[in-house]
Amino acid sequence: MSAVMDLARKARQASRRLALLSTKEKNELLSAMADQLELRKKEIRTSNEEDLAAARKAGISGALLDRLDLNEKRFAEMVAGVRQVVKLADPVGEVIRKWKQPNGLEIEKIRVPIGLIGIIYESRPNVTVDSAVLCLKTGNGVLLRGGREARKSNRALATALGEAAVKKGLPAEVVALVEDESRESIPEMCRLEGVIDLLIPRGGQGLIDTVLEHARVPVIKHSHGVCHVFVHQAADPAMAEGIVVNAKCQRPATCNAAETLLIDRAGAEKILPRLVKALRAKGVKLFGDEAASQAAGEKLALPVNWETEYLDLTMAIRVVDGVGGALEHLEKHGSHHSDAIVTEDRNAAQEF
User: Fold this and answer.
1) Model pTM?
2) Do 9 and 40 lie in a common domain?
3) SS3 labels along the chain
4) From the first residue on, what is the mean pLDDT of each consecutive set of 10 residues in the chain (352 residues)?
5) Fewer CB near the terminus (10 Å): N or C of the chain?
């Protein structure tokens, strides 16, 4: 039996224990995990610094370094996120639908845990904690396989979560981390039919394609994040500026950062110069079509294509004809990950 299979079987056994926990017991477990993360903060941060140093030495891009960085602020947000999940309603046992048959038989459709959820992800160590606590809250076990660039961070985080589980009388494998970093470990997880009940890949298109090629278990996937902000002719200029700058600049390396700005032709000359100025002030490199150059009052280089996930301070700008033009662009070039409209026109917003 391989190490991955052995760990997966232990995680599955642990998931049966989780499925029987009450809401109170699950919340106490998550609170203990938040406490243990804070207790192990120094070791976790040290491990993350070691991962960052190795990544810099390996020449990893700035975007990936940003994803990897578990700095003081992000660590605090991660722990706060665990405590927020404690406050969420427990979906397990919720009656979705019920009815009575003519013969008097009463039937209920009830939410239950899925079982063991496998999550394969890249770069961001906070995903280790985020994924684990959401699975545990819903009574599911979790088998994690992170990226090699975050190996020490993931190990430190998973160890802390496991320690908290043991303190609560549960197996450490309620949060199981696959440390086999070979390429074969991912296809092997994908083939664990009857052990893993659901697989969720979080990462680049290469990872998604690998999972889809080998999966023998159900998969929930997302696509890459070619995200858009459409500024409608009825947008408030100040609101548009705030949203566009935030969507591009707050964390440009994340998959829900805006990569393309769509401008309504009817309002382009009024609002685009302001947006270009604000983006330039934040150091954003801009591409654009001819209409965008004309409306902005400066020559913008044409983008290589409209389907690039830049993951840095780069943005493409295109002028479109109203909501219809924006939707046509999204259908042809978008990934349907995260898209927004800025407008004061409720009908336009509803259509979008």
Assistant:
1) 0.81
2) yes
3) CCHHHHHHHHHHHHHHHHHCCCHHHHHHHHHHHHHHHHHCHHHHHHHHHHHHHHHHHCCCCHHHHHHHCCCHHHHHHHHHHHHHHHHCCCCCCCEEEEEECCCCCEEEEECCCCCEEEEEECCCCHHHHHHHHHHHHCCCEEEEECCHHHHHHHHHHHHHHHHHHHHCCCCHHHEEECCCCCCCHHHHHHCCECCECEEEEECCHHHHHHHHHHCCCCECCCCCCCEEEEECCCCCHHHHHHHHHHHHHCCCCCCCCEEEEEEEHHHHHHHHHHHHHHHHHCCCEEEECHHHHHHHCCCCECCCCCCCCCCCCEEEEEEECHHHHHHHHHHHHCCCCCEEEECCCHHHHHHC
4) 92 97 98 98 98 93 86 96 98 96 97 97 92 98 95 97 98 96 91 97 87 95 89 97 97 91 95 95 94 86 88 94 98 94 98 97
5) N
